[in-house]
From TrEMBL:
The chain crosses the membrane at residues 43-60, 72-97, 131-152, 158-178, 190-209, 252-277, 289-310, 317-334, 340-361, 382-400, 406-424. This is MFS transporter. It is a multi-pass membrane protein. Residues 6-429 form the Major facilitator superfamily (MFS) profile domain. It is found in: Cell membrane. The keyword Transferase does not apply. It comes from Streptomyces alanosinicus. GO terms for molecular function: transmembrane transporter activity. The keyword Membrane applies. InterPro entries: MFS, MFS_dom, MFS_trans_sf. GO terms for cellular component: plasma membrane. One of its GO terms (biological process) is response to antibiotic.
Length: 458
């Protein structure tokens, strides 16, 4: 499969997942009405998916490294489409919840593979552009989701939003399934099943605790225990699920931390903003979504401009500046009361987040060899799933004290990203330890190369 088709497939997979999440929110009220579901059952149509996808992302990335990113992408894409079609004909809310969990399993297979494929198809020094295209497409999907979902639900009913996934799943999943190629770079990497189980339990308990109401302290306690057991296991096993050179890389850890903090701040702030726009200002969901369009527009624009920004400023300066914009956006949002101020706040949030997404993802994917690109992609996706859950949980807990304190706390969370950015590489030469095709440079430094598996191949 050629690089252009690989990039198109990666973008399609990312867009299908992003669009699915946004249109579901619009469809849930009608779903509840037609299926006679309770509010708790409707919440589980989201929670079941989130728990499944978050708990399996890292192991799914390892499967891609071992069996081939295109093969796992095909399975994820086709399975996601099949589960979506099943939800579209589900006779009751119980079926919807179960199929949403299954959809999360296939989504977990799909998401790391969209990044792993890019790492395998493009030389390390040419990854910025496809990552920028992928991020811009996600921004467009986020903007279009509420509008597309609203139109489909109004005209055809809630089931129509799930059938949207079927055609792209077939168009991009079948060619990837039929692709033949040489064994992947990580084909000899052992599968750490005990580690995968521990990661899954830890993340499932964490996400469940953060996304359910009332808040589950027992889930966090179990997550803490399994985390301790996981650390002990990973240090002792011969073939760890989390290669030490990936999780031990200072730059990768910093990039993951930045993604987690800024996504927490962004989605927490959007949760508060939605409450203000719809409850305090009395806007309907459509007009509320239209107020947020500057976020999507600036996210797309900043993603497109990010490659040039990285060449001019370097990774550390670009991410620091973008994170500062996001912090400023949250602070402006805390004082917003009129349409122009809301527009300015959303524009700052979009510009900051779009840049951070491209730049931080580039650090994570570029510094991983092809043999462990799936695990790196799984960690990136995990950060982007855990971060919003943390942000919304924080906002929900503080809303009783007022929207101002909630947003100021979220701004402080985003500001942590400014501290983490100091550990990022400063120049492009420092950021790109690998040459074309994943072949390492002749004189890499100790932290410039991620090993964790078989040598990368051309």
């Amino acid at each position: 499969m050629n690089p252009r088709w690989t990039m198109a497939s990666s973008v399609a997979g990312a867009v299908v997942v992003a669009l699915d999440g946004t249109v579901l929110t619009v469809a849930q009220p009608r779903l509840q009405q037609e299926l006679g579901a309770s509010l708790a059952e409707v919440q589980w149509t989201s929670t079941a998916y989130l728990v499944a996808v978050a708990s399996l992302l890292v192991f799914a990335g390892r499967l891609g490294d071992r069996y081939g990113q295109h093969r796992v992408f095909a399975l994820g894409m086709l399975g996601f489409g099949a589960a979506s079609a099943g939800i579209g004909v589900a006779p009751g809310v119980g079926w919807v919840i179960g199929l949403r969990a299954l959809q999360g399993v296939f989504g977990a297979l799909l998401q790391p593979a969209t990044l792993g494929m890019l790492r395998a198809a493009f030389p390390a020094d040419r990854l910025t552009r496809p990552l920028a295209v992928r991020t811009a497409a996600i921004g467009l999907a986020a903007a279009a989701g509420p509008l597309v979902g609203g139109a489909l639900v109004t005209a055809l009913g809630w089931r129509a939003v799930f059938f949207v996934n079927v055609l792209p799943s077939l168009v991009f999943g079948l060619p990837a399934l039929l692709r033949k190629g040489r064994p992947p770079a990580g084909s000899r990497t052992p599968l750490d099943v005990p580690g995968a189980v521990l990661v899954a339990v830890t993340l499932a308990c964490l996400v469940h605790s953060l996304t359910t109401r009332p808040f589950s302290g027992s889930g966090l306690a179990v997550a803490a225990v399994t985390t301790a057991v996981l650390v002990r296991h990973e240090r002792r096993t011969a073939g760890p699920l989390l290669p030490p050179s990936v999780i031990g890389s200072r730059a990768i850890a910093a990039a993951l931390g930045v993604l987690l903090t800024v996504s927490a701040a962004l989605f927490g702030a959007l949760f508060v903003a939605t409450y203000v726009l719809q409850r305090r200002l009395g806007l309907d969901p459509l007009h509320s979504a239209l107020r947020g369009l500057p976020l999507a527009v600036l996210m797309v624009a900043s993603a497109a401009l990010c490659p040039a920004l990285l060449r001019r400023l370097g990774v550390r300066a670009a991410i620091t500046a973008a994170t500062a914009l996001l912090v400023l956006g949250v602070l402006v949002l805390s004082e917003a009361g009129s349409a122009p101020v809301f527009g300015c706040a959303f524009a700052l949030l979009g510009a900051g987040f779009g840049t951070v997404m491209v730049a931080a993802t580039q650090v994570i994917v570029r510094r991983a060899e092809v043999a462990v690109a799936g695990v790196a992609g799984g960690l990136q996706q995990t950060a982007l799933n855990i971060g919003p859950a943390v942000g919304v949980a924080t906002a929900s807990a503080l809303m009783g004290t007022g929207t101002g304190p909630a947003l100021l706390t979220l701004a402080a969370v985003a500001a942590v990203g400014l501290l983490l950015a100091r550990a990022l590489p400063g120049t492009d030469a420092q950021e790109a330890p690998s040459g074309a095709g994943g072949v390492v440079s002749i004189t890499p430094t100790a932290d410039e190369r991620v090993h964790g598996g078989a040598a990368a191949r051309r």
